[in-house]
Amino acid sequence: MLGYAFRRVLSAIPIALIAVTVCFFILRLAPGGPFDGERALPPTVLANLRAHYNLDQPLVVQYFIYVWRLIQGDLGPSMVIDGFDVADLIRIGFPFTLTMALCAFVIATSIGILAGILAAVNQNKWPDYVLVLIVMIGVVIPNFLNAALLQLLFGVHLGWLPAGGWVSGSIAHLVLPVTVLAWPHAARISRLMRGSMIEVLGSNYVRTARAKGLGERLVLARHAIKPALLPVVSYLGPGLSYLLTGSLAVEQIFGLPGIGKYFVTAALNRDYGIVLGTTILYMFIILALNLIVDLVYAWLDPKVRYR
Amino acid sequence: MIFTKAFKAIATAGAMALMMSTAASAVTLQLHNGGDPGTLDPHKASGDWENRVIGDYIEGLLTENAKAEAIPGQAESWDISEDGTVYTFHLRDGIQWSDGEPVTAGDFVFAFQRLFNPATAADYAYLQFPIKNSEKINSGEITDFNELGVKAIDDKTLEITLEAPTPFFLDALTHYTAYPVPQHLVEKLGDDWTKVENIVGNGPYLIKEWLPGSYVRSEKNPDYYDAANVQIDEVFYHVLEDQAAALNRYRAGEFDILTDFPADQYQWLQDNMPGQAHVVPFLGVYYYVMNQEEGQVLSDIRIREALSTTVVRDVIGPDILGTGELPAYGWVPPGTNNYVDTPYHPAWADTPYEERVEHAKELMTEAGYGPDNPLTLQLRYNTNDNHQRIAVAIAAMWEPIGVKVELFNAETAVHYDALRAGDFQVGRAGWLLDYNDPSNTLDLLKTGVSQDGTMNWGNNYGRYSNAEYDELMKKASTELDLVARGKLLADAEKIAMDEFAAIPIYWYVSKDVVSPKISGFEENAKNIFRTRWLSKAE
């Protein structure tokens, strides 16, 4: 298993290189550049800016400059936010995005799994319907609307929670954003869990367990939950990366200092450095998560063995 | 026993601390600032959200009063030579950077040299091009920075020489491109001087914290010369581009001032928070540019006339946008300084819409288009709800004259790239004045200049060109008498507008919401309100 993990880590290097290359050239094929704003810059100024960021070099030369710096761990400067390197922005924003995503992840996963089990056990009874309803709200209402509604309810009308902003160390400021972020995630997990649980509960080995006289609790705890978790686990990896990258709307509406928005706005601004930097970061996260999920899978399902 | 004593001591200390903290409670302004600042360096800034932060921590020779009129800043007074080309500024006594170094005339010389240095790549350097040799230095034609028309006579006296007399020059000096920078620090640290741990200022506030995506925080500068009259102790400039969320946070009491709000909430605000929304004419024009390059359909003046006269401008502000923007028929926004009293107003603007449509139909027929041969035009705009609503409305207004419109939207960078490349027929654009003078918008319609064999049209996307217009603009640039200059500029405006050089649609408005707790907020056409003039009642 260790050897397998090691080979997977090694194989990430060529994947990373391919991703960087593809991303670099696709970005440059898009029309417009980082300095195309509402106003035309005087040609001399534009030339100065382009020279400053090496954009006046042939594309291939720029590519090799970028990769060379990247190998040395330098993600380069941001072209749109002056005074911050891409690495600075990630250093400031990523811990925040990560905290928020992990909070949402833990909450959503536990709530989702519990709700899924509860719904499956009470299939087609009222707890099932209530849970389905709550879950559907999370899936159907887009998060920017959800955020605005929660802001209005808890921030404006009830006044229980701050409607936005960030004060270092304040948990109250995290409640609404994490709720908005976690809700659809919890919804998806509970749907998956409910479906797979119902399937497992109808399977032969559960019937055998019940037939040999095991109590329903023991049947659930010892025989049903673990196999029913498999589809949920395979969703958790992509799910977490979705939480990490999908925080754009939440960050923008609540005015939070994460990096989710760079991922999107930088692409619109043609801030090449940030787009590449965040893409590389997310790529490594996704590769790592996939690896972890595969390893957890092996632990959960004895049929799966990696060499 | 010991416990009770200790408890009493702690309780007393706690109560005292509480009392002290309420007595000394700092007044904090929570300002909704919109975009995330791209920089804190005055030479690199370009947005009004950057201006709000930078203008509070650095002060130029002149600064703005509560109404955004130019008043003495770091310079206490100045003399202007007879011919209007040499300005001598006398700096205040005792002004200093927040690290204790004095602010000297040398800092200003250094700042202007840095602004025009091609290596700085300052976006807005051109705003100070009235200064002698600045443009040549910026383009690399002159490499000796000492030839720049900015000289320190001594530590307290600064002399600025202009290319030609420029009536709006003092106003231009309030702009952040004319701010000083701390020479001692910039020489040592380079561009890193604006990092929060290094930054110093000479303005009423000092930057203390910058959390990209969330806020910038500044505190009152105790060494500022007018500190005694500065009321607010601390300012948060909050990043929040989502206008609806900003309004929610204002309603929750988290913001004291909003610098923008969703236009469709204007009525709600007037009904529920009367007197708090401030919609004020702002110096800027929203317009459609028409590609007049040779061979393009819109090089035909008849079609341009038909298009422009059938845009019903009166409904756009009140009905389509909901914030009551005033209709624009000319090119120079009302309220612009140094201009004639009667704005350009074409006769057709007062004729009924039906009549205009009939006339436009005739023009279209003359140009060879009609019901059997409709004209199809592509209308480009940058992706935005308001731009889209206007484009849809205008497409409907052009339908009766037999013009079919294909709408095409793209993100901002792509949109302007296409306009600049001349790759469009009709395109949406807007211009906010950089300084309060008619030349700032009229320059947009000057013929491009030839550079290395290709034409550089700058911001004249439509490639409008008229020799007479160019001649009048040239004359105006050297005319000393402000009234005569205003007249020349008005003549130029008339020529361009009579030829339908573009389709002005409405004059911009600024949209602020100000809490009743805030006093000192004065509406003005520049929409600049420096924190220094505000106060807040708890």
Descriptive notes:
- The complex is a heterodimer of chains A (307) and B (538).
- In chain A, 75% of the residues lie in helices and 0% in strands.
- Chain A is mainly alpha-helical.
- Chain A has two domains: 1-72, no CATH class; 86-304, Orthogonal Bundle (MetI-like fold).
- With 538 residues, chain B is an alpha+beta fold.
- Chain B has two domains: 28-251 and 515-536, Periplasmic binding protein-like II (D-Maltodextrin-Binding Protein, domain 2), CATH 3.40.190.10; 281-510, Dipeptide-binding Protein, Domain 3 (Dipeptide-binding Protein, domain 3, Roll), CATH 3.10.105.
- Chain B has 16 helices and 20 strands.
- Chain B has helices at 2-23, 48-57, 105-116, 134-138, 169-172, 183-189, 243-251, 266-272, 301-309, 316-321, 353-366, 385-398, 412-421, 439-442, 467-478, 482-498, and strands at 28-34, 62-64, 70-72, 75-80, 86-91, 150-154, 157-161, 205-211, 215-220, 234-239, 257-258, 277-290, 375-382, 403-410, 426-432, 449-451, 454-456, 502-514, 518-519, 535-536.
- In chain B, the strands form six sheets. In chain B, strands 11-18-12-15-13-14 form a six-stranded mixed sheet, sandwiched between helices. In chain B, strands 1-10-9-8 form a four-stranded mixed sheet, covered by helices on one side.
- Residues 9-23 of chain B have low confidence and may be disordered.
- The interface between A and B is large, with 52 and 53 residues.
